[in-house]
Structure formats: structure tokens, C-alpha cells
Amino acid sequence: MIDLSHNIGEHDKIIEIRDLHKSFGDLKVLSGVNLDVYNKENFVVLGRSGSGKSVLIKIISGLLQPDKGTVKVFGYEVPQLKKEDLMQLRLQIGFSFQNSALYDSMTVKENLEFPLIHNMRNMTRREMRQEVESVLDDVGLLHTLNQMPSELSGGQRKRIGIARTLIMHPKLMLYDEPTSGLDPITSIEINSLINHVRQKFSTTSIIITHDMTCAKTTGDRVAMLYQGEFIKQGTFAEVFGAEDQRLKQFYEYNFID
Fold first, then answer.
1. Average of pLDDT values for 88-104?
2. Which of 83, 196, 82, 64 is nearest to 135 (CA)?
3. pLDDT at residue 243 above 90?
4. How many domains does the chain have?
5. Buried (b) or exposed (e) across 176-185, using 16+ Cβ within 10 A?
6. Are residues 122 and 188 in the same domain?
7. Cα gap 10→221, rounded to integer Å
8. Is the CB of residue 43 less than 8 Å from the CB of residue 223?
9. For residues 30 and 20, is the Cβ–Cβ distance under 8 A?
């Protein structure tokens, strides 16, 4: 049985990964990944498209099974969890999808109520309304309450997707390409929101991106995923100050694949 009611220490490891491997047929995607992410840390994973970034966070959240290796989240070995325990663990993990994953046929309010209806069955309608309005206010979009996703800009949809994740008060946030497809000004706003979420909700985050500004603005530490493994971890300055041609090439091409 999953128990996350205990206090998590400031320097505790939220994620611990050792010798992680994942292949799809003959294609090796992850080849011996090692990673520690600490409480309330924003950890950025950089890499080109197809480098295995999204596969990594899907394994962390239990959406994919690894071929080999240890994957611990909140101290629990994710690949070994029973279905019921995995579902309980996922309630503590917020997954912000690249495409926002909103239901087009639902209003913003209905989109945000959806996870509450399915997971918080004892909540009253009034309590749900308060939660919805609170998280919408946190992302600066309270005025969109009764709008449809089709009426929102790309940046607004990203914000609503993050709000729908926050409504379950997760301890761990997984952001998959949070600034993808956005203009530079909106990207800056999303980066600021990621930092605001960490500050207000005391979340730990993994941010998957190939956006240089996103990495530099949001990451306490940065790791470069290259050909299935991390070739460098550290602060942004430490990673891109290293004398490694693979890193310099990534930097010089401004992360455009």
C-alpha cells in the first residue's frame, strides 16, 4: 500500500534511477541512464527530438516499462508496483502534456472538474467550484471558466493544462515540452509559471525540453541526454561551459533540430 503522508525532507531524493535501459525492437532509446532528483528541485532534461526524453518521463510515471534498471519515485520501485498502487502513486504525479490534452467538447470548468469527479468522490460541487477557481486564478485565467478550448490561444491551453494537473495537488510535476509551439513572449510566461508553481505548491519537477531559454530560466540543474544516456549534468553554466563538442553543437544550433 502506497503511503505518502509522511513529510519529505528538504534534501530527500524524489526520483532515483539507476542503469535504466529501454529499447523498441532494434532501436535503443535509453542506454544506462542514472538520475537523482531532489525535493523541490526543478530538473531539466535536454535533448534533440527522438533522444528519449519523453520515454524517460513515461517510465517514471509508470506509463512504460523499462527493459532493465531501477526506477524509484518517492522511494517506491515503480515497475514493481501493483496496478492499484501505481494508480495511487500517479495521483501524486502531475503530467503536463505537450499538447495540453484538454477535452475539446468540455468547457474549461468541466475540464478541470473531470479529475476531481473521478478521483475525489467525496467533494461537493461547491468545493469543486472553489478548487477550479483557485487553480485558474493561480495560472491567471479565471476569466476563461466557461470558455471552450477552441476559444483559447496556445499559451492559454498550456496554462489550463497545467491548472488541470495542479488541481490534484501533486508532489511531482512532469512537463513535456512546455514551450513547444509557442511564441517567445508566451514561452517566457510559461517559464515563469513553472517557477511560480514550484514556489507556491512546493513541487519537484522534471522539465523535458529542447528550448534553451526554458532550460536556463527554470532549471536548478540541467542534464543533456545524448544517444540514450546523460553526457553531462549540472547547472546550466556548468553543462554548457564544458569542453564537449556534442554540447557546443547543441548550443550553437540553438536547439533547433
1. 87
2. 196
3. no
4. 2
5. bbbbbebeee
6. no
7. 16
8. yes
9. yes
Place of cell 546523460: 230
Residue written as grid cell 515497475:
79
If residue 249 lies in a helix (H) or strand (E), which one and from where to where? helix 245-252
Cell 470558455 found at: 147
54 to 133, 147, 245: CA distances (angstroms): 30, 30, 24
Question: What does the buried/exposed string (b/e) look like for 106-118 if buried means 16 or more CB atoms within 10 Å of the residue's CB?
Answer: ebbbbbbbeebee
Q: Does residue 40 lie within any of the structural domains?
A: yes
**For residue 203, what are the domain limits?**
13-92+170-252
How does pLDDT run across 148-180, given as a tens digit for each residue?
A: 999 999 999 999 999 999 999 999 999 999 998
> Is 39 exposed, middle or buried, given 0-12, 13-18 or 19+ CB atoms closer than 10 A?
middle
CA distance linking residue 103 with residue 3, whole number of Å: 31
> Which residues fall within 8 angstroms of residue 68, CB to CB, at 6 or more apart?
19, 20, 21
The pLDDT tens digits of the residues spanning 65-80 come to 999 999 999 999 999 9
- 3-state SS string for 94-144: EEECCCCCCCCCCCHHHHHHHHHHHHCCCCCHHHHHHHHHHHHHHCCCHHH
Given phi > 0 = left and psi -120 to 50 = alpha, else beta, which region is 80? alpha
Percent above pLDDT 70 for the chain: 97
The residue assigned the cell 467533494 is 123
Domain final position from 141, 169, 197? 169
